[in-house]
Design goal:
The complex is a heterodimer of chains A (113) and B (465).
Chain A: H1 15-25, E1 29-30, H2 31-41, H3 50-62, E2 66-72, E3 78-84, H4 86-111
Antiparallel strand pairs in A: 1-3, 2-3
Helix pairs in contact in A: 1-2, 1-4
Chain B: H1 6-17, H2 19-43, H3 48-59, H4 62-73, H5 76-94, H6 96-125, E1 136-142, E2 152-153, H7 154-163, E3 167-176, E4 179-181, E5 187-189, E6 192-195, H8 199-203, E7 209-210, E8 225-228, H9 230-237, E9 247-250, E10 253-260, E11 279-282, E12 297-305, H10 311-328, E13 338-343, H11 344-394, H12 399-435, H13 450-462
Parallel strand pairs in B: 6-11, 8-10
Antiparallel strand pairs in B: 1-12, 1-13, 2-12, 3-6, 3-12, 4-5, 7-10, 8-11, 9-10
The chains are: A alpha+beta (113), B alpha+beta (465).
């Protein structure tokens, strides 16, 4: 797959999973919704590469962190809705905590003169 | 896998048994995404056609995305391997001429190699079935006139025993074909050996049951005891252990059966008896017998080297003994009398060793030529495939994926060739054993064993690299 690595807003390896979990914390959503939610919530800074989004969603579903169900979207189309499972919720808490520690540490390092 | 485990396998299995459903779901999901993006694009002011294009552009290679997602669900290596295998088989079926030529070429190369290698392994590589076979040598009395002697006289061998220090033991034996009656009373000949009392002990072979010969039985008046070979015992006594202790008539003389040799016993097979010996009796000579005379060279000698003594040292010692004997008995021996001391293996295989290696080398070259030919065929085929590869990589197949697919196809070809080769080898080995000259010893041991099959498999796939 032709990945555009130099594109602005490229996500760090592993952060995509965290963002997906966070996006679904508020309720079930389809893939497109997840992509748009991340884009909007980051105030247009982050754009999820859509080619990577679906494999990530499926990976999380396989690991049992997400459950999936086919339903009907607002505009009456058949769509696959993802939701957090209990395991997903736990994972989200862990990863959020981990991310806080990491970003805090990186920020402290950058502040030192 | 933190939260995976059993459930994950279950989910995968479900996807595996419903591959069409999985495929349709993936299609739908991607199509839904593209439709949503397109409609958002339209809302942002693009016209319908342009909105669709933009959506697809942003999404990237949707086929590759679907493929990646699908691979997550399936037992991917297994399934793609199976798919490649089927695809490879289909491709090969399309060009039967190529396949027949390639498989036949490989089969011939591998088959010939495997067959010859089977023989070489049985005859040359497997060790002789005796205790420390490398310490065994054969001795024979010769001179400048007799270049390859095989025999010695009893009288001279007795001198060797008392004068030499290079050997732990020297055993003597001679062919023996007494008349006998079979179990149903039909008269016939039995092939046998008369051996000195230390013969079995020297080889390191003990009887399956019963006993070997006692030293006091190796005398002219006491030697009427026999040890039977395993096949003879089965044939004549139906494998009954009561055979030991019974008597049997050989040349009208009653012999007591004292033992039966193990099934895997390998008789020293460079004796002059045409077939494998079936009965063993003590040699039962002493120096008073006319046949024990110094010039009656009709017994053969096998010896076990003393620890730390090399064949060369033994040879030097024996030659000096021969020279001294020639001085002491100038009428009986030529002046240049010598003793031929050879490792048992060499005596046994001397004539055929070089020929077999040569044959193996020749078939090896044949195999190389076969491989080169098949490689050429494959190269020609690869040129035809350029188009197919170009199309596939344009559709988003990764390089490794294409290589894996092409490799699967040629491994399929190799294994087909290997299988045909092994069949040919099994058949060819049987043929070799049947047609081989009697000089090749231990041919009865030749068989296509797992080691050899592994060799064939290695050869057939190593061709890949």
């Amino acid at each position: 797959m032709a990945a555009k690595k130099d594109q602005a807003g490229e996500l760090l390896q592993g952060t995509l999973d965290l963002l997906i979990l966070k996006a679904l914390a508020g309720g079930s959503m389809h893939g497109y919704g997840v992509a748009e939610w991340i884009h909007e919530s980051s105030q247009d800074v982050l754009r999820v590469e859509e080619g990577a989004l679906y494999p990530a969603l499926h990976r999380l579903e396989l690991r049992g962190l997400l459950s999936a169900e086919w339903g009907t979207s607002d505009n009456n189309r058949r769509a696959k809705f993802y939701a957090l499972t209990a395991g997903g919720r736990k994972q989200l808490a862990q990863e959020t905590e981990y991310w806080r520690r990491m970003s805090g540490a990186v920020a402290r390092i950058l502040q030192t003169a | 896998m933190p939260a995976g485990g059993f459930n994950e396998i279950w989910r995968r299995l479900r996807a595996l048994v419903r591959p069409k459903q999985l495929q349709r779901d993936l299609e739908d999901e991607v199509a839904f995404h593209l439709a949503m993006r397109a409609s958002d694009n339209r809302a942002a002011g693009l016209d319908a056609e342009e909105a669709g294009y933009a959506a697809r552009r942003q999404f990237g290679n949707s086929t590759a995305v679907k493929e990646r997602a699908r691979e997550l669900w399936t037992f991917v290596s297994l399934e793609t391997f199976w798919r490649d295998l089927r695809y490879g088989a289909r491709m090969l079926r399309k060009s039967p001429g190529f396949v027949i030529v390639a498989v036949l070429t490989l089969a011939l190369g591998i088959g010939a190699n495997t067959a010859i290698f089977s023989v070489v392994k049985a005859v040359l590589l497997n060790s002789l079935p005796y205790r420390e076979p490398d310490r065994l040598v054969t001795l024979a009395a010769g001179d400048a006139e007799t270049r390859s002697p095989t025999k010695v006289s009893y009288g001279e061998a007795e001198d060797w025993k008392t004068r030499s220090r290079s050997f732990q033991q020297i055993a003597l034996y001679r062919g023996w074909t007494p008349a006998s009656a079979t179990r149903d009373g039909v008269p016939g000949m039995v092939f046998g050996l008369r051996v000195t009392g230390n013969f079995f002990e020297l080889l390191g072979v003990s009887p399956r049951f019963g006993r070997g010969f006692l030293p006091e039985e190796d005398r002219p008046d006491r030697w009427h005891v026999v040890v039977l070979s395993y096949p003879y015992w089965i044939r004549q006594f139906g494998g009954n252990q009561n055979a030991v202790g019974q008597t049997m008539l050989l040349d009208q003389i009653p012999f007591q059966i004292v033992g039966v040799l193990p099934q895997n016993f390998e008789p020293l097979s460079f004796t002059d008896a045409g077939s494998a010996p079936e009965v063993w009796a003590p040699l039962g000579y002493d120096l008073s017998l006319p046949e024990a005379c110094r010039t009656c060279q009709h017994v053969q000698a096998v010896a076990r080297l003393q620890d730390g003594v090399s064949v060369g040292q033994a040879r030097a010692e024996m030659n000096s003994i021969a020279t001294r004997l020639a001085h002491e008995f100038p009428k009986e021996y030529a002046e240049d009398a010598e003793v031929l001391v050879r490792p048992l293996r060499e005596t046994w295989y001397g004539n055929v060793q070089a020929a077999l290696w040569l044959l193996l080398g020749a078939t090896g070259v044949v195999l190389l030529i076969a491989c080169a030919n098949v490689a050429n065929l494959l190269l020609a085929r690869a040129a035809q495939k350029k188009r197919e590869v170009a199309v596939r990589s344009a559709l988003g197949a990764t390089r490794s994926r294409i290589v894996r697919q092409l490799l699967t196809e040629s491994i399929l070809l190799s294994l087909a060739g290997g299988t045909a080769g092994v069949l040919l080898a099994v058949w060819g080995t049987a043929l070799l054993v049947k047609w081989a000259p009697a000089e090749i010893p231990r041919l009865s041991d030749v068989r296509v064993d797992p080691g050899i099959l592994f060799f064939a498999l290695l050869v057939s796939t190593a061709r890949e690299s």
